Amino acid sequence: MTVMEQRGAYRPAPPPAWQPRTDPAPLLPDAEPYRVLGTEAATKADPELLLRLYAQLVRGRRYNTQATALTKQGRLAVYPSSTGQEACEIAAALVLQDRDWLFPSYRDTLAVVARGVDPVEALTLLRGDWHTGYDPYAHRVAPLSTPLATQLPHAVGLAHAARLKGDDVVALAMVGDGGTSEGDFHEALNFAAVWRAPVVFLVQNNGFAISVPLAKQTAAPSLAHKAVGYGMPGRLVDGNDAAALHEVLADVVRHAREGGGPTLVEAVTYRMDAHTNADDATRYRTDADVAAWRDHDPVLLLERELTGRGLLDEDAVTAAREDAETMAAELRDRMNRDAETDPMDLFAHVYAEPTPQLREQRALLRAELAAEREGGDR
């Protein structure tokens, strides 16, 4: 006879299947995106933080324009620009501690650079020279993820493992609005909430999944509302307001670090450039649509705030732009050098122990290269 079969044994009664496990009200996002710039809350923001955000935004904008130019020069195979979304990129990188992890998507190269990765190494994957281009462990930055949302379960797994080990680590995973329609998004949020994993999901809602508008992806009141169905808080924030983003992300990262579990943050922003250099955005949106967002540009918003409060003068603006130009010139110079590649690298860093097929292919390529060299020496 088992313990549960004994008379009078304790049998916990599960709640009815329809009964929610948590009160949904505290999980609901605000009706409107949270803003700081241009409001009374801006007067309470740290001036040094605002100036730091401004300098990083100016560098980020120049980084985007330079990388886009490199695609036109044939130095990059593809570049998904984050022009217009720089506030999301910079804030995501700045709120993390050195021990935390960033899980970027393919559009988040700027966040990777702001996290401390060498700009050229961050572009190496998009150049087609290397598997990733940087050491993820050295910078606590996962590889850029081209498949939609596949980085999200990885972020949850790392965060959960860190919690089990007792490590004070938070994972911040970035994804676009298109990624919220993927199964990996559902699985990641579900596991994160059940495990109360210290992970933050940052959705950059830029209006389009390539050419598909948000209205054709979801009928939800907002993407932040999706959090409630998984049992985690949803936060809605103006994705072009760098101060608001930094405040919200810092708050939810702290919440996760203190054991409060995951949060889904939706940042409402806009992709000013095409999806990539291979996309023709005029096929699905008009110039007037884009122009309507230019007055809400993240760099312009912060510059207006700082100038209006007397925290930023013309000399400071010039200094920020000159620093950005120096960065762009160095990036341009280094990217214009031909990469030194080794064909045998095709077989490196794939498996800890190469498979028989890889060993066979490696030997075949080595023989072909040797034969080619011998033929050239004759």
From TrEMBL:
Entry cofactors: thiamine diphosphate
Domain of life, source organism: Bacteria
CDD domains, per the entry: TPP_E1_PDC_ADC_BCADC
Keyword Oxidoreductase: yes
Dehydrogenase E1 component domain location: 66-330
MF term (GO), any: oxidoreductase activity, acting on the aldehyde or oxo group of donors, disulfide as acceptor
Gene Ontology BP, a term: branched-chain amino acid catabolic process
The keyword Oxidoreductase appears for this protein: yes
GN (gene name): pdhA
Protein name (database record): Pyruvate dehydrogenase (Acetyl-transferring) E1 component subunit alpha
Cited Pfam families: E1_dh
Keywords carried by this UniProt record: Oxidoreductase, Pyruvate, Thiamine pyrophosphate
Alphabetical list of NCBIfam families matching this protein: PDH_E1_alph_x
Classification of source organism: Bacteria, Bacillati, Actinomycetota, Actinomycetes, Kitasatosporales
Residue ranges, annotated region (Disordered): 1-25
